[in-house]
Amino acid sequence: MRWLLYFFLCVLTAACGEGGTPSVHEAKELVVLTRTGPTTYSIDEALGAVGFDHDLIQLFAKELGIKVRFIVAASDADIYRRLIEHEAHIAAAWLTPINDPEIRSSPPYFQSANILITHEASLPISEIEQLAERTVHTVAGSRQAAALREVQEKFPKLRIVDEARRDELDLLENIATQRVEAALVDSAVFDIAGNYYPELQGSLEIGPARQIAWLFAPNTDPALMIKAEAFLAGIQKDGTLARLKDRYFGHVERLNQADSVRFIERARSILPQYRKMFQAAQASTGIDWRLLAALAYQESQWDPLATSPTGVRGMMMLTEDTADHLRVSNRLDANLSIRAGAQYLSDLRDLLPSSTKEPDRLWLALAAYNLGMGHLNGARGVAQGLKANPDSWYEMKKVLPLLARPEYYNRLKSGKARGGEAVIMVENIRIYADILNRYEAPHRPLAEKTDAQDVADKPRLKLARAKR
């Protein structure tokens, strides 16, 4: 039936792709419009281009057996305009289907809403009528901007400020610092930003929840739309979509407001004295210093004198055996502990099989940091017996708690383990690292060396500090 539909649509358009966007076969690549944002597309220092929509498209292109070329647009409105002008085959940017018969959409793969955000010190806005004489900021050209204009038709005194040079996270930062009264953003973005800015409160959804989907250019090859539909149905059925959602959103609601406030306060007051130590550890292991700092916070709250009842000690909470193996003479020396803990994590990551890819590889290494590699390998064996993927953190975080149950650990040479605690640890580290990535700059030794040389060559110029 799908091929009959394909033939019928081809006849209607005279020829697949004719008069519109060149077909994927003709272009020899999948051209995709997107925009930067926490749910869509961004550049990671270690991993390159990342993002939920980015990764979803990459999986689709892999199934098609072609390369992807991303075009980063300025806004949702810019995406719609460029899609109509046939600059791409697909738009993948956390978009909702639009009321335009020329632009068709894929089946939905997520659901989100528009939520009004204010500072916790202000009275919450719980009724739409309270917007009558308010000022609300939003990203220019976004679906939130369009939603506000619908509200403005009913309440003409509502003042809307379209921010063309800020993304949603920047808007929420302005609310956290009380430079802006209110902003309308996507609810998924608010879930992420709530960890960065615990002062935020969301109390009013404007409009119904919206389905998130891909959009296709006018006269797109019908075969591409059919393949997209089959792809999205397939990854929902086999669990791939759930794993991808977990990678980007599965950990964002782990911390309560008090946890976030405490972490951010300590990152400001305590972390600076250890920053160079973590950066030196990054230089020797290649692991981002902010991830290492997140690990240290989870282990010791950045207390170099921390000691547990089980005998692990120091900033990175090393066991005596691990310290001896890594030739650490004093576990309470912060510098020695950080270097050794980073090296231990790097060694654990290297012990995992080549089939384990990043970022799952790092997350599984973090679990081994807590449990030991013997227990992690035991859990990997349990996963295989349960027909779960031992290389997937999404699968393994369901398996690891089973190590505390006798029907599983009695079969393992490594014995009983508190696998559930390892899962909590890793998920906490993930969100701590996300917060540090928002507040702290990456460490680029070569770039810093070049900058220093530029300053030496031009002593009258001041080196600009990157905005955090």
Describe the protein.
The protein has 468 residues and is of the alpha/beta class. The protein has three domains: 149 residues, D-Maltodextrin-Binding Protein, domain 2 (3-Layer(aba) Sandwich); 94 residues, 3-Layer(aba) Sandwich (D-Maltodextrin-Binding Protein, domain 2), CATH 3.40.190.10; 183 residues, Orthogonal Bundle (Lysozyme). The chain has 20 helices and twelve strands. The strands form four sheets. Strands 4-1-5-12-6 form a five-stranded mixed β-sheet, sandwiched between helices. The chain has a three-stranded antiparallel β-sheet with strand order 10-7-11, with helices on both faces. Helix 15 packs across helix 16. It is globular. The N terminus and C terminus are likely disordered.
How would you summarize what this structure contains?
With 468 residues, the protein is of the alpha/beta class. It has 20 helices and twelve strands.
Largest sheet: 5 strands, mixed
CATH domain topology of the largest domain: Lysozyme
Number of strands: 12
The gyration radius over C-alpha positions equals: 25 Å
Q: Tell me which CATH architecture of the largest domain applies here.
A: Orthogonal Bundle
| Estimated share of beta-strand residues | 5-15%
The CATH class of the largest domain, by name, is Mainly Alpha
- What's the helical proportion of residues? 40-55%
Distance between the termini: 54 Å
Spatially, the strands of the biggest sheet line up as: 4-1-5-12-6
**Net shape:** globular
Q: Please, how many domains?
A: 3
Based on secondary structure, the structural category is alpha/beta
Total DSSP helices: 20
Rounded mean pLDDT score: 89
